[in-house]
Inverse folding.
């Protein structure tokens, strides 16, 4: 049987085996998290800037970010990587929805106003354009009025 006439199941079987081996290798490892993906995206941005700016150190910085992201993805020290990722997510805080999905974040900001409970500080989402609203905090059940 010639190579051209071989059934495609050979390729499907090889692909399935490669996926199984990759999953086996990643078992017990960190895998891609938000910080690793941010490093990869930043490195990509730096490479694009470097194409036009021709600054040598930008390429090295992008390479260092890719190496660090690879280290994070392959790390078996899950506790440390989780703490680092949590600190990163806390640092970017309110900017996170705007970075992940700017279109949805803009629609959310247009339709809703976010206010803090006067008693416990819990953030509460209220619809815009409804005038004065009496809101009950979902956390402490305190009632307070806000202008939406």
């Amino acid at each position: 049987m010639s190579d051209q006439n071989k059934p495609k199941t050979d390729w499907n079987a090889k692909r399935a085996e490669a996926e199984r081996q990759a999953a086996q290798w990643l078992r017990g490892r960190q895998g891609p998290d938000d910080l690793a993906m941010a490093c990869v995206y930043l490195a990509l941005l730096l490479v694009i800037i470097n194409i036009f700016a021709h600054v040598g150190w930008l390429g090295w910085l992008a390479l260092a970010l890719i190496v660090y992201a690879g280290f994070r993805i392959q790390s078996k020290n899950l506790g440390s990587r989780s703490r680092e990722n949590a600190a990163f997510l806390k640092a970017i805080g309110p900017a996170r929805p705007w970075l992940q999905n700017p279109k949805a974040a803009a629609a959310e900001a247009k339709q809703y106003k976010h206010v803090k409970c006067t008693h416990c500080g819990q953030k509460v989402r209220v619809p815009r354009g409804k005038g004065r609203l009496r809101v009950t905090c979902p956390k402490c059940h305190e009632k307070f009025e806000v202008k939406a």
The longest helix spans residues 34-53. The chain is about 60% helix and 15% strand. The first strand starts at residue 112 and ends at 116.
